[in-house]
Specification:
alpha+beta
Length: 116
């Protein structure tokens, strides 16, 4: 069974409909309220944090004996899709994205954890 999480950063601190923003990001629709992310810095931070316990099989795919996940990283958002036991990796990714001021959005519940 797979699980998904997403991160992005709003340009303003106004109340936003996170589920609508998430849908627009996935559909590559207009999201003027979303800031551009530093993709290279995010990729580097994630690679450094995961290199000890995960094998990077492609630019966006990681695996080990317990699980696998894919990170879709764009200038507007980061999307995590995981299978198996990836809990510690997901926690590290969430911590890294928090450093980039990107709260975690859980599309399964429609909740965004952290500041708006």
């Amino acid at each position: 069974m797979g699980y998904s999480m997403s991160w992005w950063r709003y340009s303003t601190e106004t109340n936003q409909d996170h589920s609508k923003t998430y849908s627009a990001l996935l559909a590559a629709g207009p999201t003027p309220q979303v800031e551009t992310l530093p993709v290279k810095n995010i990729r580097t931070s994630i690679s450094q944090a995961l290199c000890a316990n995960w094998e990077q099989t492609s630019q966006d795919c990681w695996q080990n004996d317990l699980g696998a996940f894919e990170l879709s990283i764009s200038e507007r958002c980061v999307v995590f899709d995981g299978y198996g036991d990836y809990g510690k990796a997901l926690g590290k990714i969430a911590d890294i994205m928090s450093e980039f001021q990107c709260p975690t959005f859980d599309p399964q519940s429609g909740e965004r954890h952290g500041s708006t």
